[in-house]
């Protein structure tokens, strides 16, 4: 996606500002770089990348590009894989984020007459409070329950007649199955679901949609870049629109760092155009997607990417094969009777790697045939045969947060 002259000027303004903000992180990063030399796509692509490790190394407030008195809030990544990343926000950053999030709701056809049940987590994480900010900016009624407590979720969903569910795909599935198992479908008023924070496949999407009978929208974002709400799918359900007046997106080859062709999968790399507290420049997200060329039938002028296909750091190599969650999901959806849920465990046994794949199937499915077909299809596509374990729907663990579907135990 070519950078526009307006976006180039916004990038130049950001670099001018951070070079003079007195922060050693930015001074070092842009030492010797003259913002006036950034005049086209080629000169922009010479700017250095930003990485997650750089942001971790700046802990706790080394990313602040404004005086402390202008910081009104901080948010943080989880820190589960190392030192957390602390992102400071100015009031303008918070306002811009709420505006983008309200746009997301509007693109999903949500209005101020809706009642939005918010189940993602609150606190340092950007999720819950982002969903609430956008809801309040839109003027809808927020039902801010946060994560967990499924009994309370179901009670409030019925008593307050929630029309929109905001959740991770894992928790949306858990709630859907509880509603189905308890026969509550006729007593709820849900019309739409806004789902984010983890990749979810077509099978899972179809199962949630079919149980609840609702429209589903895929929201995108990350803590380092405002949070969820920088993009969302539309009623056409053909990709995610992202707000290019706030972020410039590149999709690059993860190995070379060079742009891929439109339609090819690569790593999303983000530059914030007006963010004040902690601006990002060519931040390598590790999220994998592809640009969708052309204008969407929904009429929106915002550009599109495919749904997130995985993460470059989620990749595992087994017997010379590169495996992503999407790799496994592609095989599963080719087998009749399989459900959306699976778990893959990779172990090193007797000197060789083994992949055990546990897959749920619908009632009435011939389990022996399903297991054989899964193994054969996997062998045909990836020249490797997993050990397949077939279980019934609901037998694999459910999560109120994100679900870890691939577990690599070879290096434990």
Automatic annotation (TrEMBL):
Occurrences of domain AMP-dependent ligase C-terminal (ranges): 320-410
Q: Which family does it belong to?
A: Belongs to the phenylacetyl-CoA ligase family.
The UniProt keyword set, sorted, is: Ligase, Nucleotide-binding, Phosphopantetheine, Phosphoprotein
Superkingdom is Bacteria
Q: Which GO terms describe its molecular function?
A: nucleotide binding; phenylacetate-CoA ligase activity
Q: Pfam families of this UniProt entry?
A: AMP-binding (PF00501), AMP-binding_C_2 (PF14535)
What is any one GO biological process for this UniProt entry? phenylacetate catabolic process
State the protein's name.
Phenylacetate-coenzyme A ligase
In its UniProt entry, the species of origin is given as: Treponema peruense
Q: Where is the AMP-dependent synthetase/ligase domain?
A: 60-270
Q: In which pathway does it act?
A: Aromatic compound metabolism; phenylacetate degradation
Quaternary structure, from the entry: Monomer.
EC number per UniProt? 6.2.1.30
